[in-house]
Amino acid sequence: MNTKEEILNELHSELTQKLLEKVRDPDCKASDLNVARQFLKDNGIEAVPNEDSPLKDLIKELPFKINATASNT
């Protein structure tokens, strides 16, 4: 018989796999991506943009500049 922890681990694993399938689907919707984003955040997964990474490329394409020293004026 599965313990509660084993069942939750299996559920987490299945959810991870289904989300990955959704994200890889060419017809993936923004709402699917948002669910995946929140899943990663809830699980403490963060990314730092490194050179030659897709995240760095995405940041370059954003239509605004990120100002780390922005004032509150």
Quick tags:
73 residues; mainly alpha; elongated
Descriptive report:
The chain has helices at residues 4-24, 30-42, 54-61. It has one domain (4-61). α1 (4-24) packs antiparallel against α2 (30-42). It is built from three helices and no strands.
Given helix and strand content, the structural type is mainly alpha
Give the N-to-C terminal Cα separation: 61 Å
Rounded mean pLDDT is: 86
User: Could you estimate the helical fraction of the residues in percent?
Assistant: 55-70%
Uncertain residue segments = none
What's the count of strands?
Answer: 0
The largest β sheet comes out as: none
Question: In summary, what is this structure?
Answer:
The protein has helices at residues 4-24, 30-42, 54-61.
Give the helices and strands, then pairings:
Layout: H1 4-24, H2 30-42, H3 54-61
